Amino acid sequence: MSKTLTILKHELRQTLKRRTFILVTLSIPLLLLIGYGIYQGVQHWTKPSEPEQRTVGYVDQVGIFAEYITQGSISFVSYGSDEEARGGLLADDVDEYFVIPEDYLSTGVIHRFTQKSEMEVPGTIQRAIQDFLLSNLLADDIGSELLERAKAPMYLNTVQLDESGEITEESEFSRYFLPVIFGMLFVFAIFLTSGFLLQSVSEEKENRVIEIILSSVSSRQLLAGKVLGLGVAGLAQITIWLVAIKVFAEVASVNIPILSDLSISPGFIAVGLGYFILGYLFFAALFAGIGSLGSTARESQGLSGILVMPAVVPLWLNYFIINDPDGMLARVLTFVPLTAPIAAMMRLSRDGISSLEVALSLLLLAAAVVFTLWMASKVFRAFLLMYGKSPGLKEILRTLRAA
Amino acid sequence: MYVVECSQVTKRFKDTAAVDHLSFAIGQGEIFGMVGPNGAGKTTALRMLMDIIQPDDGEIRVLGKPINEQVKNRLGYLPEERGLYRKITVAESLLYLAQLKDMRPGPAKERANQLLTRVGMDQHKNKKIEELSKGMGQIIQFLATILHDPDLLVLDEPFAGLDPVNTELLKNLILELKRNGKSIILSTHMMNQVEELCDRFLMINKGRAVLYGSLDEIKSGFKSNSVFLKCDPIPEGLPGVIGSKSHGSYLELFLDGSTSPGDILEALVRARVSVDRFEVSTPSLHEIFIRVAKGD
User: Fold this and answer.
1) A210 burial level (CB within 10 Å; 0-12, 13-18, 19+)
2) What is the pLDDT of residue A390?
3) Is B83 part of the contact surface with chain A (CB cutoff 8 Å)?
4) CA of B116 to nearest chain A CA: how many angstroms apart?
5) In this structure, what DSSP letter does residue B122 have?
6) B274 vs B262: CA distance, rounded Å
7) Which of A104, A124, A151 is the last residue of a domain?
8) Which residue on chain B is closest to A205 by alpha carbon?
9) Residue A28: how many CB atoms within 10 A of its CB?
10) Is A212 within 8 Å of B97 when comparing Cβ atoms?
11) B289 in a domain, yes or no?
């Protein structure tokens, strides 16, 4: 046991010193900071500047538009005739002018004159003219309160209801992005650490230190020490990420309202931890076995790629899992050990998984972990000292059968 | 007490027996040679002694017990396939490997410093192995083998690839260990090293023991009944000589079964000839090795 601990500490120390590990661990908090910076920057640059004071001339041929000549930042100046107004425009007394023709009340047509070429009528001008007209048309007949409503009849507030009629308080952001983000962080942490494990095993095989180590400890102690050591590193990494996200969400939700949707419940963390640990152990055992097969680190890495593919299937199929977390596909993926951790985490963040399913899938995963660990220790022992050529599938199967 | 007892040990890979009913014993304080051609099964036998692989059959006792973790802590193994962590410093590597032998970090560090100073590599202790020469790396690996003060050392081709200076250094270290009562197994191709260092040896070929015993015993078993003689003049009619062969400056005389080299010497003294050289012919270990390996 003490030797397992020695190996654990050694592997942990070596992993924490790895440049890749440090970079990837810091990348998430760093990305969050950069993202926040960009958001703030964009907000700053696109913030509407102080409204410009504008003067707009008008010619009232109906004869009822004389009051309310200030609307927001725009003031209206009356002219007696079209010619006078045009003169004012050319003399730069006004920025533009419009004519309310005699038949305005029946047609609603307003003629606007401007020297600028523009794609469409600027919103502020349009709103100001509208308000000016409305105020003059209605102010004498209705109160100011009604007038305000007539100017802005509604502020739309949409509420989404679920099947039972309860209000679902989630935005599209938390609906689609959260599960994918969690899934990806999971994949990342699991594969990064089990990748390091693979590297550590195959490096020791490649540089032949393995023989000295195996003359001091058993292959089981070595496997246990490595798996646990790297597991601690992986846990530390995902903890740093989650804490970073949590802190970031708290701080930044003041400025980015969408982030207040981002809440992580203790239950979610507990189940997530379970999936992370079991998922890691499963892949770690697989990768340790694979690491003992290849004769160089590079060769082993190539072999491991084959296993990464199916594991990320849930991420490819994220649309189906998120939209139908109770569906057949999502369920199947939850029970297959290779895809279970990611699929379950995605469903969990959508609240689309029952606790019975969680328990069953964790149980299946745990059984798979026991089996792969057993298999890995057999393969580990048989092939670690075999240099030169990697064993074929037949030979591996024979070894497992003989064990 | 024997430090190693192997009886009828067999290990098969697929259908071939890499080690086939091998038995031998090694006494305390002995340097025991293990020789044989490539692929004879030496490394497999040593790995079984180290509990890296398990025999299919037979019994191995090391330091008086079947191998367990406590026994493993008292063994030092320098494998033939050599290598060390390339990215870790010398001091870190030594410390880690010593801890795997159940040494506490404090004493391990102290002893590592002592040993590095002893071989004059103190200034390299914070360098990574990849920054050192191959020979230096090999010496470091030897230090890793003896750092935890093991009672039994197993050295698989320890001199391979070393320059004469480092060979001498390593040889002295090995003899020093022997003087301190350690038992050493030396697996090698180089017969002169066996003749120089080993007390007894085992020759294996195709997994089987073909020769086993002390150097003298084995050599006398291989001597042809002949003497080398250089004298002037060569007396006629020496009793029991059935033939002769010239080797240039000296003659080899073949004796019949009932005549011993002593009889010839007596006859020479009686004849009062002046003798420059008289030697009972014994083959070198090298010749024995070649003869046995060829299946002679």
Assistant:
1) buried
2) 65
3) yes
4) 19
5) G
6) 16
7) A151
8) B83
9) 20
10) yes
11) no
A-proximal residues of B, 238-267, CB under 8 Å: none
Cβ pair A246, B108 in contact under 8 A: no
Q: For residue B97, which residues of chain A lie inside 8 Å, CB to CB?
A: 212-213, 216
Q: Answer for the pair A94, A132: CB distance below 8 angstroms, yes or no.
A: no
A38 found inside a domain: no
Closest alpha carbon to B31 in B146, B145, B150, B153: B153
User: Between A349 and A137, where is the model more confident?
Assistant: A137
Q: What ipTM was reported for this prediction?
A: 0.79
Q: What is the Cβ-side half-sphere exposure of residue B64, based on CA atoms within 13 angstroms? A: 3
Mean pLDDT taken over chain A: 82
Q: What is the pLDDT of residues A125-138, one digit of tens each?
A: 888 898 888 888 88
With b meaning 16 or more CB within 10 Å and e meaning fewer, what string describes A242-264? bebbeebbeebeeebeebebbee
Q: What is the dihedral of CA A318, A323, A326, A329, to 10 degrees?
A: -40
**CB-based contact B256:B226 (threshold 8 Å):** no
Which residue segment(s) compose the domain that A121 sits in? Answer: 54-151
Best of B96, B104, B141, B142 to disrupt the A interface by mutation (most A CBs within 10 Å)? B96
Q: Which of B172, B189, B214 is the last residue of a domain?
A: B214
Residue B295 lies in a domain: no
The tens digit of pLDDT for each residue in B126-185 reads 998 888 888 888 889 999 999 999 999 999 989 888 888 889 999 999 999 999 999 999
Residue B84 shares a structural domain with residue B187? yes
Rounded CA-CA distance B75/B262 in Å is: 47
Does A162 fall in a domain?
no
Range of the domain at B75: 2-214
Number of folded domains in chain A?
2
- Which letter does DSSP use for residue B74 in this model? T
DSSP state of B128: B
Q: What's the token pair of residue A320?
A: 């189906």
Final residue of a structural domain among A151, A185, A203: A151
B126 shares its domain with B243: no
Positions in chain B whose pLDDT score sits under 50: none
Which residue is associated with the tokens 């290849």? A294
Q: Within 13 Å, how many C-alpha atoms sit on residue A393's CB side?
A: 1
